[in-house]
Write a structure and sequence with these properties.
Elements: E1 13-15, H1 23-26, H2 28-33, E2 37-39, H3 40-43, H4 46-49
Length: 54
């Protein structure tokens, strides 16, 4: 969908979801198209994420 809207592979994507089941496999196509994908775990410290842990 993002490609269809004209977004190129230099687009930064910030993914705010929780842990993704089997992420290595399921996210591979998205990471191939958009290598600048970032998650909250990549951007925030463990201390910053602590209040949101279940």
């Amino acid at each position: 969908m993002l490609r269809g809207m004209g977004f190129g592979n230099n687009t930064y994507i910030f993914l705010a979801s929780g842990k993704i089941y089997n992420a290595e496999k399921t996210m591979a196509p998205l990471l191939d198209m958009f290598p600048n994908l970032q998650t909250k775990q990549m951007l925030a410290s463990e201390e910053e994420l602590a209040p949101y842990k279940v």
